[in-house]
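Dear support,

I submitted the protein below through the web form. The confirmation email said the job was done, but the results page showed an empty box. After a refresh the structure appeared. I'm attaching both so you can tell me whether what I see now is the final result or a partial one.
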Amino acid sequence: MNKRINLQSFKQFLASSTGGGIILFICVILALFMANSPWSEGLNSLFSTVVGFENESVQLSYSIKQWIDDGLMAIFFLLVGLEIKRELVEGELSSPRQAALPIFAALGGAILPALIYTAFNFNQPFSQHGWGIPMATDIAFALAVISMLGKKTPASLKIFLAALAIVDDLLAILVIAVFYSSDLHFTYLLYAGGIFILLLLFNRLGVKSLLAYIIPGLFIWYFIHHSGIHATIAGVLVAMTLPTTVDDKESPLEKLEHLLARPVNFIIIPIFAFANTAITLHSEMIGGLTSTMGLGIIVGLIVGKSIGILGTSWICVKSGLSKLPEGAGWKHLFGVGLLGGIGFTMSIFISMLSFNDPILVEEAKLAVLTGSLVSGLLGYLYLSGLAKKKEIRVQ
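What the results page shows now:
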């Protein structure tokens, strides 16, 4: 009986939106602990181990760390792309009035943090390229925090935050593709483009086999990886070609989304978090939190996100383009804005693309962790406080 209860509890944990966030948090703490323990050298050696093969025609030999950043994260971006397309076809982004609020909120929540970072680092050539770092919102962490509030907040807020984070991811993808890609090799891009067109043709012809999209998608990843554009963009391109429908019948897109959701949330993102937050702390790095780069990231995430999301939402509603989420007020939207400051996964990812100096990368990651932690705590406490005030008034 106890075994059955424990198994049921475990299944409920896996099905919950908080489960992934909890595992993510544990991985971050474990990574920081191990990176600052006698095991740090062994951990670095593990991540530096080269795996794969290569010959005159094929180059697939990379360190474990690079396989995580370029390989596993392509699967994460595939899932993000599937979510974006589903929302565009049948979800919160499917009609202009529905889509207006999260789109405007995401734009404001991306542009203001970038401007704040730029203001801090305007005359700093070594750090000015990091303006994209505070633009992102981590959907897994943000939804985990708002889910922990349960019925204390309107259900519509969670839907709004999810849609906002999805648009935010799309903006981050565009920023990475346009501003954080290296020298382009057009031959590889042409190969990838040809396969992408083939997948679009499969979609038009009604091909529903997932393998018909996934196997060519692996080749798209390979060619994108060698083109100079970051390989993770391949995941989004493949996702956009998968067919879906507006009816209740499970489409190939929805089938793949369901297949990927748990592995991504419970395995891939935690592995990425563990590999990229294994930061060995030292006194100079702590000082980096008060550098122009550190302050640009932290203030951008905490202040820029909350004010940007609230401000553009206010403009959108007051202009009649959209309306507030059902049962929510402006105070709730400010709380969601604070949760939007949980940058984490995408912010750390952009940190790695922004700088060549490993010390700057580590300092940027620490600033992202700090800003995300403060934003998450403030958002949780603020929304929880709003709920308590409402309960008192009702009584």
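Response: this is the final, complete result; the empty box was a page-load delay. The radius of gyration is 21 Å.
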